[in-house]
Design brief:
By secondary structure, the chain is of the alpha/beta class. The chain folds into five domains: about 1-45, no CATH class; about 60-200, 3-Layer(aba) Sandwich (Alpha-D-Glucose-1,6-Bisphosphate, Chain A, domain 3), CATH 3.40.120.10; about 205-300, Alpha-D-Glucose-1,6-Bisphosphate, subunit A, domain 3 (Alpha-D-Glucose-1,6-Bisphosphate, Chain A, domain 3); about 320-445, 3-Layer(aba) Sandwich (Alpha-D-Glucose-1,6-Bisphosphate, Chain A, domain 3); about 445-570, TATA-Binding Protein (2-Layer Sandwich). Strands 17, 18, 19, 20, 21, 22, 23 and 24 form an eight-stranded antiparallel sheet that branches. Strands 1-2-6-5-3-4-7 form a seven-stranded mixed sheet, sandwiched between helices. Strands 9-8-10-11-12 form a five-stranded mixed sheet, sandwiched between helices. Helix 8 (about 200-215) crosses helix 9 (about 240-250), helix 9 packs parallel to helix 14 and helix 11 crosses helix 15. Pfam families: PGM_PMM_I (PF02878), PGM_PMM_II (PF02879), PGM_PMM_III (PF02880).
Amino acid sequence: MEQFPEILQNAKSWLTDFFDPAVKQEIQELIEKDPESLQDRFYKNLEFGTGGMRGIMGTGTNRINKYTLGKSTQGLSNYLKQTYGPDGLKVVIAYDCRNNSQSLARVVAEVFSANGIQVYLFSELRTTPELSFAVRYLNCHAGVVLTASHNPPEYNGYKVYWTDGGQIVPPQDGEIIAAIDKLSFEEIAFEPREELIHIIDKEVDEPFINASVANGSIGARGRDQFSIVFTPLHGTSITAIPEVLKRAGYSQVTIIEEQAEPDGNFPTVVSPNPEEQEALDLAIKKGEAIGADMVVGTDPDSDRLGIAVRNGEGKLEILNGNQTMILMTRFLLDKRKATGFKGDEFVASTIVSTPMMSVMAADYGVDCKTSLTGFKWIAKMIEDYPDQDFLGGGEESYGFMVGEFVRDKDAVTSTLLACEIAAEAKAAGSSFYQELLKCYVDFGCYRERLVSLTKKGMDGAKEIREMMVKFRENPPASLDGSPVVRVEDYSTAVATDPRDGSSEAIDLPKSNVLIFITEDGSRLAARPSGTEPKIKFYISVNAPLDSVSDYAGVAGGLDAKIDRILAELTLD
């Protein structure tokens, strides 16, 4: 540790009497016996990223524990008082299935109450979309959910929601972070005022479930003939999705028993992430065995959903987030078109999601707004454009939001909407898959692929920074033979045409993202993750599709094109 004296000093600051004896003993042992682990725990403070603050649970400033969450909560309490005044403040807190989420949620509630703030704490685990809903339903000034979404079991996290029910965005995020950074750990008020902590459950559950059914239901035919296999992947959606489907009229719902019990160790999967094929293996096996029409899986806090539907050969095939988003959005557009567009509608997506969203929306004459990665930006659009009507929106990472009653990605309502689309299609002699292919015929066949590279620890963070520097200093001149005609650097908010050096401003907040667009419409995006120790590369290619019968050949050609682009990039 001699080469990092500031890290050692940071660690020793946790040896005062303010910290629990067990914490002090652990740090002393790390100093004496495991400097490498000590370095990783104290080389930085946990930061707010695209999905709040996430990290490995344990002792240290770079870990999730009662002190790091307590400090964040104390800073948020100070900021709420500064913004709204000291009286009448209210917050709502939810937590998911992760290990220690319940006890950490209690710590957060106690710190809020110690600061004189009324706290509404869910009695048991609840979904993230219900927390977002509860902020506005209970007229709270803020909300917090304890979750690490789809991260591995050793992680937990802390997501902050503002008065509108959306996650914090500028200027609130920077101001809250500044309020937190000003504090020392010794300034955390840990002594609770129990009379300010109110336990809630059904009084919010019922309105949320009713709103989910109302927003996700379209009166589809054939609900009682539509077979669904559902897995919550040991997460919170077991508290909402089965009931929502039941109330909407779906009677053939098979729940994967091995994954129905909430469990923060996620014993049946490598990763509780519906983006991963392996996570849905049990559900797909069951779906094939019983001849189910659709398989649905959700992540631990129930904001992401993955679905598998019958493909052209009759096999269950997992769709990616872009595909699900496209068909859901088209369905919402068709639904509004049937009643008549008013001219104020908009849909939303993100800069790393499929460009097909903008192409499709333009065909309907509807505005498609594109944001930075993260649903907090889509929720912000609802506030930024109060005179426009938000129909729905999504992102490639398996998230979708239907309407504005929830201000975050919502796997509860989106699951119902996906089932409605599929049940209606089946009743009409089609299928979810066939309707997706029709979208490709109408708007072009788009294929996307995500490559994620994990780079852990202080060295990994440095490597990710160096990779982004390399792409900025030595950008690709072409992708699969098509010249790059536009480079979007969101760190400077400038887009450049490398052919003549001309440039224009990007009207979005700055972010560490690079996007390269070629003459033939191919796209490559590079972006460090805001929630995991990863750097992500998003590739999108497209080609015309004349008929559904041509899909296999066109899709295969586009997949081969992506393979060639990846070979050129030599990522490692």
